[in-house]
Fold this protein.
Amino acid sequence: MTARTIAQSAVSAVSIYMRQVYMWMTAGLAITAVTAFAVASSPDLQMAILGNMVIMIALIVAQFGMVIALGAAIHKMSATTATAVFIAYSALTGLTLSSIFVVHPIGSIANAFLTATGTFLAMSVYGTVTKRDLTGMGNFLMMGLFGIIIASIVNIFLASSMMDFVISCIGVLIFTGLTAYDTQKLRAFGMNAPVDDATAMRRGALLGALELYLDFINLFLMLLRLFGGNRD
């Protein structure tokens, strides 16, 4: 096999892999949006889910459990199981995110979503076309992510609006950068994607979709915290 043929094969593998990643990411976001809107549209569901702290805590714990399971054990799952876990996680996220329709007006949610979409697309394109190695930036951003998680926990007790504003600003920068970093990282993985192994491709695409899904959701939430406003 010539070097040119190898290069063409790698490009083809990346294209196939990234197409699947974006397809599953979009599906996950759609499931989350539909679930959140359905709950927000039903006063009974709102009361049952958002009005019960035990259920909310259980949902959040289940979300973390599914993320850990996908990240740590997806290589042991069948394609069907991995897909089911990803879909279930997307739906659970929709259940917990339904509260934003109670807190924020629909116009603010739409504006935050459109801004997040534009930012995500721009940074994903940047991660695709840039020749710069973003590994160093990615490591720095991950440290920043842990920092804002700790700061957010502390601010639960402090309830400081200024600290919340600072966390949100930094969060927007972090998840904007992570979008570019994760895109580049996934494309590098896609160069050697096992296109002849449907199960391995599905696992890899779902894991990649989860990373970009989390980048988008968190970017959206940070923007909503900054510009969303509150219902009267």
